Amino acid sequence: MIVDYVDAHRDEFGVEPICRALQVAPSTYYAAKTRPPSDRSVRDARLIPILVAIWLENFRVYGAQKLWKAARRAGHEIGRDQVARLMRTAGIEGVRRTKRVRTTRRDDQAPRHPDLVQRDFTATRPNELWVTDLTYVPTWAGVAYVCFIVDVFSRMIVGWRVASHMRTDMVLDALEMARWSRGTRLAGLRCHSDAGSQFTAVRYGERLAELGAVPSIGSVGDSFDNALAETVNGLYKTELIRGPARPGP
What's 129-242's CATH class? Predict the structure, then answer.
């Protein structure tokens, strides 16, 4: 607030020079200083210590929803949004149980395949370049992990697998679906992925070799190393749970 800023610097610069620099009339500052506090300010000043005390009594874990209900049970008439606003003012917050889900876990000991794509996500025919990635979908029963394989030429998902884990088996299952939908021998195919441990596993490379395909892995720490797969990832994240899909017109 302007009043707080002027209060913090008035001894160094003076009220009038600060107001002139901020293009505020000094009378506005003095009026704000002499104006009695509003009913809302008075109520906030009374409720904040109450909410902080309830928050501390409950081991500092309550968020706005639970703190609001606890305040109501204690006989305080207060709204849920008001509790959230006063928590921000007081600098308190509830404990967050959610954590970031990581789908790319590197195996630093495993040899990595070369990058045969170099960010050029184009293809002149089907089965020339596939991209694959892992994602996750939150559900009421927990997190479901999804592996999908996309043909760059048609932008179609040619293989996918949903599982409760991120082991290499799910990647191999997705690859098996792609194999039966596109053919058992796909000479010249490049299958591009990130550097996740599932894609550096020996079994993954062997399965691609059975198809006549070669694996490709993008550079580490590069947001564009598997850009096409990550784009499709966002578009199909929900649809993949229901089954294979293709982009709309």
Answer: alpha beta
